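User: Can you predict the 3D structure for this chain?
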Amino acid sequence: MQMTLQEYASRFPDRNRPVPREFAGQWLAWNQDCSEILSHGADLTTVREQAIALGCARPVLQKVPQAPFVGRA
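Assistant: Here is the predicted structure, written as structure tokens:
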């Protein structure tokens, strides 16, 4: 069963939005309230440094699993 992002947000208000499939297997750096992906890539250090360079002193880092993947297309 698929649902829109609005349905997901109303049904699960305390959860982050689904991550796009294109980020499977990568590191993500989110802003501090986890509302925006600042950088992504294979190397954790590079991803973190890019987020800091964008002005986020303490990015939230996340490793997205390669598979099985649950997210949005």
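The chain has a mean pLDDT of 85. DSSP finds two helices and three strands in the chain.
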